[in-house]
Design goal:
about 70% helix; mainly alpha; about 55 residues; globular
């Protein structure tokens, strides 16, 4: 049986990235607390960092 993919809105993603940045906790720990995959959160953090670096 195939798994259904969860969708996260932009506010949730931004809040999760903010938790990583402001608390200094490891991505894996924040992801576990939020019930999401650590790789997913790492991608969100990477994307946010790339946007910041390019000014977008």
């Amino acid at each position: 049986m195939a798994e259904s993919r969860r969708k996260f809105d932009q506010d949730f993603k931004e809040g999760a990235v903010r938790l990583v940045r402001e608390t200094g906790r490891p991505i894996a720990q924040v992801a576990q607390d939020l019930g999401i995959n650590a790789g997913t959160l790492a991608n969100w953090v990477w994307t946010a960092d790339a946007r910041t670096a390019t000014g977008g």
